[in-house]
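call fold(seq) -> tokens
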Amino acid sequence: MRADSSVLINTPENFRDTWRYSLGGSFEVNDKWTLRSGVAFDKSPVRDTERTPRLPDNDRRWISFGAQYRYSPSLSLDAAYTHIYISTTHISQDAGDVEANGLVDGGYHSNANMFAVQLNYRFQ
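ret:
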């Protein structure tokens, strides 16, 4: 049996080059604790006119917090949290033919949360 290799639909994404801006810092509280924080802004590579339901991406703002605890000069533990705010996204596409392809008109609101824990061991 031969698999059908015809393409049903082709959706070029037409990504563009973008920039990411970020700023972060660390504060050493004492010889055991270090606190960290940072912010970032990501410009989406998806143009408003090219956005599809498959990739409802938009600009993102990041805020992060973290800490490190040093048990010894060789052993430390890091923990961090990041929240990503994703700008509300609107999609309105008719693919040139509403009757044949349907109309997609709506919005997306999303965000993301990331948690990380890392155990570090330094060989001396």
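The radius of gyration is 22 Å.
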